[in-house]
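Cross-posting from the modeling subforum.

Setting up a comparison between two proteins and wanted a second pair of eyes on the formatting. Protein 1 (sequence, then structure tokens):
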Amino acid sequence: MAEALLKVDDLQAWYGESHILHGVGFEIGRGELVTLLGRNGAGKTTTLKSVMGIVGKRTGTVRFDGRDLIARPSDEIARLGIAYCPEERGIFSSLNVEENLLLPPIVKPGGMSLAEIYQLFPNLEERKRSQGSKLSGGEQQMLAIGRILRTGADLLLLDEPTEGLAPVIVQRIGEIIRQLKSRGFTILLVEQNFHFAATVADRHYVMEDGRVVDMIASADVQQNIGKLQTYLGV
């Protein structure tokens, strides 16, 4: 594995009195694309939010590019170079596509220009004057991903980017994610759709009940397919 860009050890997280994560541990090498797989409620989204510092309480170790994040607020974590694309997408319906793309601040040098984002997402350029609420589900997902690419972030946290999308759009999202990896982004991807995840990831961490219970390299997926189906209930 490449030098670890993100290393998580004994991560615990709570929402109020609810203890959600119970000692999560994993690492991602610089330039890798790694997935968190698991059934609903396994703690995948909470893990992303805990890395970003947007849960009620968290303990343990989260190190990004050699810096410990556990005591830092979420805005400071973002400025270090981590961007989060939530499952609900968070599109501002009162703003048009281009206004949505320009909304997040540039936190460090090296982000993609608006022209580069439109090259990656031609649909968005065609719809750049359309309100966010007028976009299809697939276009909204492309906008949600495109919006974080200007920021200069090195690590992208993508939460269920294929949820509810037609197969042809899922295929396009996969192509985009592979292009982002080829550009040097490091990506942590939460997915329910294992068949999609297997087409893009270097490695898969499997979560159950707020813990990481297994790690399977993409090269070993076929020989572990039965175990994965048991984990995921498919």
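Protein 2 (same layout):
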Amino acid sequence: MKVRSLISSNPLVRGAATCLMALALAAGASTPLVASAETAPVQPVASVTAEASATAIVPVEAVTPTATVDATPVLVVAPAPVKPAAKKLTVRQTISKVGRDKGLSKASVKALLWIAKRESNFHRKSVSSGGCYGLFQLSHSMVRGHPWSNAAWNTKRAIKYMKGRYGSVLKAKAFWAAHHWY
């Protein structure tokens, strides 16, 4: 289904419509932009092209308002440009970003990814039979009341745990490699 615009894509028609709106705003509320059927019939403007006439019919009354127009300048504000939506990061990208934001080295970030792969295979909502949650399988007491399935939060909490217990992420990885848990 093809949807027609209220104002044509033709630059001349768009310019005419903009001028008409500016005139209507300058005239104030005393002159309606579109005349009602009782006052006068709506007639198309003679200079409208065939393409534009299919999409926009401009009433003659809007072109020649009955009230006098003062010379007050009208400010036409263009809409703000729309920013493209931010790309959603993958779980691996989120872990890497949080690690970099926390000031970890490249080796430590790789160690984080290595541990997350072995603990949960990068599944944010992973829950073990032992009652551990998220990417890094944090204990219930660590995640109670927190958004544990949020990759960024889980990573920040895991980094805090690893630094507190082992001194660094690399030492936590070394412990995991020797014991298959951390």
